[in-house]
Inverse folding.
């Protein structure tokens, strides 16, 4: 698993053996960070600056990707 992997890959039209993301692609890291950011923003116990929210959301995404890779032996 790579942080730059596409979240919703689609099979390529020109080469059916190649998978490509849709235009406006979302990579895995951004997708996970978005979910983490939603949770942070919804938490009444968490208060930060916009930059702090963004930094922490990305840190959570990176930690999850690292842990998933460790569990998969990547």
């Amino acid at each position: 698993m790579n942080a730059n992997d596409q979240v919703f890959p689609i099979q390529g039209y020109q080469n059916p053996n190649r998978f490509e993301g849709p235009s406006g692609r979302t990579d895995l890291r951004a997708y996970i960070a978005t979910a983490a950011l939603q949770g942070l923003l919804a938490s009444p116990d968490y208060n930060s600056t916009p930059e702090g929210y963004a930094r922490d959301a990305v840190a959570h995404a990176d930690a999850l990707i690292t842990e998933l890779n460790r569990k998969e032996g990547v």
Notes: The first helix runs from residue 28 to 42. The mean pLDDT is 82.
